[in-house]
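Usage

Read records sequentially. Each one opens with the input sequence:
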Amino acid sequence: MARKTLIVLALTLAATANAAPLPLANDIPAGKDGVMTYIGKESKTTAPLALTLDPEGGETVATIPQGGKATVLLHDGKGHTLVTNHFGLTGWAQPASSAENNDDFPALEKSELREKGGDPIFSLHYLPALGKTMHGTYNKNDEGQPVPYDPKAEDSDLTYDHLLDTALKAGGETYHVYCSTGMSDDYGCNFLSEGSSLDNSAGLGGQDFYIPGNGYVYTDYDDSGSSLYRKRQKWAFDGKDVKEVAQPYYYLGIKSTYHGDDNDSTGKLDKKATLALTDASGQKVATLKAGDKITLVLADARYDCPADDRTGSEDYPICQEARVLVKTADGTLGWITTSYNYRTKDRSPRIDGLHPLAG
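and closes with the structure output:
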């Protein structure tokens, strides 16, 4: 056997030996060495499973307890497996020593705000042992404090509904949750801790919130004001501060169609346009034509947005370009990069499940 072959074999065996078996109940198809492979198989865990930010480990995104739902999305061709949990949080799978503060939800009750006969405007899912539903509509005074609604007050159209008082975990401080549609459908909720105000509190955009009692808040939101696609996110609170728990990718899982390119200057759809899929190195692996059926698998949560495609503020930057992993009807896996920045480009792909920013 040639020396080069022996080296390759040794490296392959070393990688295999270092990859601990994952605690999954079902047999999961093996990936191909050196090739990213889509799996898309659901299973249950036989022991706690950690989902981490990086393939080799690092910060924990979420923990799945024994018996929890785990969907194996893909193998990266290097011995690592990408998994999403029941909520859609995504990370690289590693055996975990503990399921403490895991991310599976117990039975939750719901506090809602809805228009008469309409769909819910806000839904807050909470653990009844830690919280209680509240009712009341408020304005904001000059100090940023909620005051009972007065239709004659200045800015009376800007209202806040007090929907919930809850702790995020047993023994934790109580947050008073006020939700508002803003002045232009800027849906979001403020979590007021002791000594905070509506102007100085942890705030999250969204309409659906999950507070399962493990110390975190979860949102599931497709906000055209700040994102090109739906995001399932996990948030860590510290008094008046809130920070997203970073994921490597946002799970999409959307059956979609590429329709062609929207031309902003003509207002017409160009059905002759095509869209290239590339591998991780940028090599083209497929070409989409108008009408092609695809699956939007993931969006790259750590995509390095080009400077020309950034908007928003320094504290809250928004990217008008997205890098999305797509699976074609014949199973080809590849990345597309889509821009909806009409300041610099006059055309953008029309793909179900992706959308430009509102306004």
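Summary fields computed downstream for this record:
- The longest helix spans residues 3-18.
- The chain has one helix and 29 strands.
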